[in-house]
Amino acid sequence: MAASPKSPAFDPADPLGVDDLLEPEDLAVRDTVRDWAADRVLPHIAEWYEKGELPGIRDLARELGSLGALGMSLDGYGCAGASAVQYGLACLELEAADSGIRSLVSVQGSLAMYAIHRFGSEEQKQTWLPRMAAGEVIGCFGLTEPDHGSDPAHMRTRAKRDAGGDWVLNGRKMWITNGSVAGVAVVWAQTEEGIRGFVVPTDSPGFSAPEIKHKWSLRASVTSELVLEDVRLPADAVLPEVTGLRGPLSCLTHARYGIVWGSMGAARSSFEAAVEYAKSREQFGRPIGGFQLTQAKLADMAVELHKGILLAHHLGRRMDAGRLRPEQVSFGKLNNVREAIDICRTARTILGANGISLEYPVMRHATNLESVLTYEGTVEMHQLVLGKALTGLDAFR
């Protein structure tokens, strides 16, 4: 009888052996982004978060562009053409540093660039995508409004045709990542034909983007309001290939996919901090990691963390095969963000009072994830998406 192969050693960092599912190119992407984040973000992120700013965002964007991380799953126009799994791994590593950094990349690539790439004219693509892929131009995505978040069909922003063929936009958008540093905004507006997307240079007269301050989440991220007051655009500013909510919702599906991975990065960072703390913190004459209740917490955290990574990997393979459905992305975002927050909160209990200190990443990740939980689809919206898929009955109205 042939001898059975020797089992590999148990790896606490990869208890399910998920790395065995990755190709060498996948691992190279992951390690490149991880090293960049360790060098350029982690030494400074606590200070940025405490001050509520992201200094040098344009330099960071150019560096991310040089890594191929901006619009990385898109083809052509200077984009990397990476796989969905590789893009997901990049999101995980970026959010392990901070959700604000991953949001910068997601909004740039999965919302603004994706909208132009999928629905734009050839001229729009040639004009904007190469510079956005290089990080030379930062983009933002204007969908959410002060009074309309989960119900974008009733947005109040309007675009009307002028007698000369131009478009004139009026309205406001709210909670817009990258808004006040963007060179271009993809803005969705009501028209006589239905909801349309517009490529808006942010130096257009009548366009302004005041930054939103006093946030207690995503503090190391630029968040703005967009104000459009008689913004005049040429006839060819409209995205020609889509009318209706299908346009912005398809962009959101792509961005939500990145969140499925990214949230696990925040969870991993908090979990690793809890493990290291549990091994070094002593109470009652021994490390607290040696007590049963602490080990139970760590075991449960590890189970949910690596189940979430497996789920993200599965959805990535489906996206690469062209078989990923929006309902499956809702499944992933609902589960992974919810579990990531729980992991962060449990990690905080292991660190005790130290868990609220910016010396450790746990509370920063927990507060960031409170935003990730509700942006790009609240818990309730994703529950209703799945409920409709499961029953065939629409409970939205």
Description:
The chain has 3 domains: 18-133, Acyl-CoA dehydrogenase/oxidase, N-terminal domain (Butyryl-Coa Dehydrogenase, subunit A, domain 1); 139-237, Butyryl-CoA Dehydrogenase, subunit A, domain 2 (Beta Barrel); 246-391, Butyryl-CoA Dehydrogenase, subunit A, domain 3 (Up-down Bundle). It has 11 helices and 9 strands. It has helices at residues 24-40, 45-51, 57-67, 84-97, 99-119, 122-133, 246-280, 292-320, 326-351, 362-374, 379-391; strands spanning 139-142, 158-161, 167-177, 184-191, 194-201, 207-208, 223-233, 282-283, 286-287. The longest helix is centred in the middle third of the chain and has 35 residues, at 246-280. The relative contact order is 0.11. This is Acyl-CoA dehydrogenase family protein. It holds the Pfam family Acyl-CoA_dh_1. Its cofactor is FAD. InterPro entries: Acyl-CoA_Oxase/DH_mid-dom, Acyl-CoA_Oxase/DH_mid-dom_sf, AcylCo_DH-like_C, AcylCo_DH/oxidase_C, AcylCoA_DH/ox_N, AcylCoA_DH/ox_N_sf, AcylCoA_DH/oxidase_NM_dom_sf, Glutaryl-CoA_DH_mitochondrial.
| Main sheet specs | 4 strands, antiparallel
Succession of helices and strands = HHHHHHEEEEEEEHEEHHHH
> Count the strands?
9
**In CATH, what is the class of the largest domain?**
Mainly Alpha
The stretches of 5 or more residues where confidence is low (pLDDT under 50) are none
- CATH fold call of the largest domain: Butyryl-CoA Dehydrogenase, subunit A, domain 3
Binned, the helix content reads 40-55%
Kindly estimate the percentage of residues that lie in beta strands according to DSSP: 5-15%
* Strands in their spatial order, largest beta sheet: 2-3-7-6
- Supply Rg: 22 Å
Average pLDDT level = 95
- Tell me, briefly, the overall form: globular
